[in-house]
Structures are given as structure tokens and as C-alpha cells.
Design goal:
single chain; about 270 residues; mainly beta; three-stranded antiparallel sheet; 1 helix; globular
């Protein structure tokens, strides 16, 4: 329900000359999206402490408000579909003595990916593929001491070719920008050390973000039954890092992560 003037004008209905206003306001309209997200899971307890499993599932994301209704000057309607991802996973989990772990391989296909084309219009014509392995291994050395290694090695690729905004061109087979191939976390006791590997920041795979390492501290105290106090310090060394990085208009752009942050949490658990 548009409570403003429809079309490519200023707030008084006067056209922006000579090139037109930056955005167009769509007329009143109705959009609906119906999606199903089925999931099939199989599980086999092969032996004591060993379980094999397989999953097949479908997920979706309807277009956001800005994608549907924040139109460019020459755009009257954004005809978008919901993004859809089909995922397949097979893996195993085990627990033996002081050791436990999990490893899984996955294959995902994403269709109707919403992006902005070379005209600045939102379109839902992208496709990507994602294949890789996830793993976790934990050694419980003592009741209060555990070491964990976890990570993902995956390849994220474009499966279509198209000119997009900013003068870039997506080429089928290239890595998806801002998608690192490796994520690794090593944790000891309450002192996890997460690391984000380097990744490409443009569709042409010509520029990289070097990645970062952070030090997080966590301690928990169960001081009486059902009550606990947790203290966390994130980014304890107050490192400058990017939650996300990309390359646009000839420059690197960084979306900065949080500086050093301290959290306290008091919890009560019912029996």
C-alpha cells in the first residue's frame, strides 16, 4: 500500500530532469509467495557410539521488501521468485572414550538467486553450487579441559554468467565472492581460536581478503544447582577485522567486526 505518489517523480509529483529520479515508487500491488520446505532424514546406529545419517532437504527465502519495492528509475515492477536451495548431506557421528567427532559431506544447489544486474534492477536469475566437507573432533582430556578442532572445506561457485552492477561480470565456474573455501576453529578449554581464511572479494576472482584470527575467552561457573554464571570476552585482543569484505567501484570495502566486547550471562535451568 503506497502512501506516497507512484512513479519516478519527486515528493510533489514533479519529474526529476533530465535523467530522472534515482528511484521509482511502485503503485499499490499484491505479491504472494508459496513455498514448501520438505526434509527427508535417514539414520542408522551402526554400533555403540557410531551413527551414520543422510539428509535431503529444500529451503527457501522470499524476496525482501527492498528487493521488491525499491525500484530503479527505469523500473516499474520487480518480478522476483523466492530463492530456493536443495541440499544433500551424508555423514557419521562417533563417540568413544574421551573422543567424539562428526564428519559430513554436502552438496547444495541454489536457484533463483536474487541479484542486481548491470541496469541496477533486482532479478532472480542467478544460480550457485556449494560442495564440501564439515568436520568436528573433540578430545575431553579432563572434566574441565577439552580440545576441539572444527572446520569446513568447501567450494562455492557461480553456475551462470551475467553482467552485474558496478561494471562486473559473473562467469560460470568462478568462486562466489566473499565465500572462503576454508573455515577453521581450534578451541582449548574456554579459549576458542576461530580463524577465517582468505577469500575472493569480486566475481572476477582478481582481489582477495586475507582473512583474520580472533581470540575469544569464555568461562562458566555453576555456583548452585540449576544456576550458572557465564562470562565472555569476544575479540579479546581488540583486533580490527572485517565481518565481510568486498571490492566495488575500484576499491576494497570492509564491513568492520565488533571491537572487544564483554558479556555476562546469568542462567537458570528448570529440572
Amino acid at each position: 500500500d503506497n502512501h506516497m505518489l507512484a512513479g519516478n517523480t519527486d515528493e510533489n509529483g514533479v519529474p526529476c530532469l533530465p535523467a530522472g529520479c534515482l528511484y521509482s515508487r511502485p503503485a499499490d500491488r499484491s505479491d504472494s509467495f508459496t513455498n514448501a520446505a520438505p526434509k527427508l532424514s535417514l539414520r542408522w546406529d551402526a554400533a555403540t557410539g557410531l551413527m551414520l545419517y543422510a539428509n535431503a532437504s529444500r529451503g527457501f527465502r522470499p524476496p525482501e521488501m527492498t528487493e521488491l519495492y525499491r525500484l530503479q528509475r527505469n523500473q516499474a515492477v520487480a518480478d522476483l521468485d523466492s530463492e530456493q536451495v536443495d541440499a544433500y548431506e551424508i555423514g557419521l557421528k562417533f563417540a568413544r572414550g574421551n573422543w567424539r567427532g562428526e564428519i559430513a559431506g554436502f552438496d547444495m544447489r541454489k536457484d533463483n538467486v536474487i541479484l542486481r544486474d548491470s541496469n541496477g534492477f533486482y532479478v532472480s536469475q542467478g544460480r550457485t553450487s556449494h560442495e564440501g566437507v564439515e568436520y568436528t573432533l573433540t578430545w575431553q582430556a579432563l572434566n574441565v579441559l577439552a580440545a576441539t578442532v572444527a572446520g569446513t572445506h568447501a567450494r562455492h561457485r557461480y553456475e551462470f554468467s551475467r553482467a552485474i552492477e558496478g561494471g562486473e561480470t559473473i562467469t560460470a565456474g568462478n568462486d562466489v565472492d566473499t565465500a572462503p573455501r576454508d573455515l577453521l576453529r581450534a578451541a582449548l578449554e574456554f579459549r576458542p581460536l576461530p580463524a577465517v581464511g582468505d577469500y575472493f572479494v569480486d566475481a572476477a576472482n582478481a582481489h582477495r581478503y586475507t582473512g583474520h584470527e580472533l581470540l575469544n575467552l569464555r568461562a562458566r561457573w555453576d555456583f548452585v544447582p540449576r544456576w550458572s554464571l557465564t562470562l565472555r570476552v569476544n575479540n579479546a585482543l581488540d583486533r580490527a577485522y572485517a565481518d565481510r569484505a568486498d571490492f566495488a567501484f575500484g576499491n576494497y570495502r570492509y564491513f568492520p567486526g565488533r571491537p572487544r566486547s564483554v558479556f555476562a550471562e546469568l542462567s537458570w535451568q528448570a529440572q
